[in-house]
Amino acid sequence: MEFTVEQIAQMLNGEVRGDKTLKVNQLAKIEEGTEGCISFLSNLKYEHFLYTTKASAVIVDKTFEPKKDNYPTLILVDNAYSAFTTLLQEYQKFLQNQKKGIEQPTYISSSATIGEDVYIGAFSYIADGCKIGNHVKIYPNVCILDATVIGDYTTIYPGVKIYSNTIIGSNCTIHANAVIGADGFGFAPQADGTYKTIPQLGNVILENHVSIGANATIDRATMGSTVIREGVKIDNLVQIAHNVEIGNNTVIAAQTGVAGSAKVGSNCMIGGQVGVNGHINVPNKTIVLGQSGVTKTFHKEGLILAGKPATENLDYLKAQALLRKLPSTEKRLRELENKFKSNE
Which stretches make up the UDP-3-O-[3-hydroxymyristoyl] glucosamine N-acyltransferase non-repeat region domain (predicted)? Predict the structure, then answer.
């Protein structure tokens, strides 16, 4: 794939400072750029690489002014990081669109519906009643069970397991070995100390533009649906339990667990190794810092939460400051106690 700098600038709604006719065919980090590469500069900590890079062109913010004269052709955009992300997405689409057809051996039920320009990798299994949209990419060793629906332009990477009746929207990405729709953790304790399995009869719904990381697990609902709303991004090794609802455009980092029937609002940011208790609500625009434990419902939007149990970050920081002073405070108390005893 080869484009001129001018063509890329038009794609990104940018303007060129330098040679518009230069051709680029690779993407690279600015410090590793060579001739024919295009890169970007958004963090000024890396500005010094702009004057040494061999890249043919670099995407920068319109507000950026070079401090030296020896720099490559620039593409000026409103937001260099966002623009380069757009370029990466277009390049990824180009690469993925090269894969089409159905490899063998593969099992596809005669009652399954397969759309146009689909790629299905070898050793994949598509069960009865499944509906696969147009331009879907299903990589090798994927298992899709009965009556699952997958929307257009969705990509499913190797080893993914999708249980029956799952509904997946368009333009979703599910990374390797994720499991969508396994039973929720439902067991009823009995008088004799044993547990009776509660059937999990619901399903999982992933709306459009959802991304699920490698080895993430999303459990089906006991009844109804576990719902991951549009635009949600879930990192690797995340556990979403039964009947959870995650709001639009929320992002969840690795090793986080959300317990059953919790509701997480829209545009939240949840850090790594966070635990969210079951049957609670996390309001819209909440930020939960890494390794926090959210144990109760919060009602105000836009809070920053931290700690175990989680509280507002300012209160958490104050408590931590006091905690660091405990050894010296204890020492002073002992000294005062001894002084008091000696004066008795």
Answer: 22-89
Spatial neighbors of 263 by CB under 8 A, at least 6 apart, are: 244, 245, 247, 280, 281, 282
Q: Tell me the helix, strand and coil percentages in the chain, rounded to 5.
A: 20, 30, 50
Residue type at 212 in one-letter notation? I
The CA distance from 102 to 112, in Å, is: 14
Which one of 48, 209, 242, 279 is the catalytic residue? 242
Q: Collapse the DSSP code of 92 into the 3-class scheme (helix H, G, I; strand E, B; otherwise coil) and give the result.
A: helix
Q: Is 135 a catalytic residue?
A: no
- Helix, coil or strand: residue 193: coil
Q: What is the pLDDT of residues 183-241, one digit of tens each?
A: 999 999 999 999 999 999 999 999 999 999 999 999 999 999 999 999 999 999 999 99
Q: DSSP string covering 284-342, please?
A: TT-EE-TT-EE-S---STT-EEETTTTEEHHHHHHHHHHHHTHHHHHHHHHHHHHHHHH
Whole-angstrom Cα distance, residue 134 to residue 148? 15
Compute and round to an integer the Cα radius of gyration of the chain. Answer: 26
Banded pLDDT at 337 (limits 50, 70, 90) = confident
Residue 54 pLDDT exceeds 90: yes
Question: What is the pTM assigned to this prediction?
Answer: 0.85
Sorted by where each begins, the domain ranges of the chain are: 3-96, 101-317
Inform me whether the pLDDT recorded for 98 exceeds 90: no
Asked if residue 1 has pLDDT above 80, the reply is no
Q: List C-alpha distances in Å: 221 to 168, 226, 247.
A: 15, 5, 16
Q: Which CATH architecture has domain 101-317?
A: 3 Solenoid (2.160)
**Domain at 3-96, CATH from 3.40.1390.10, 3.40.50.200, 1.10.10.10, 2.40.110.10:** 3.40.1390.10
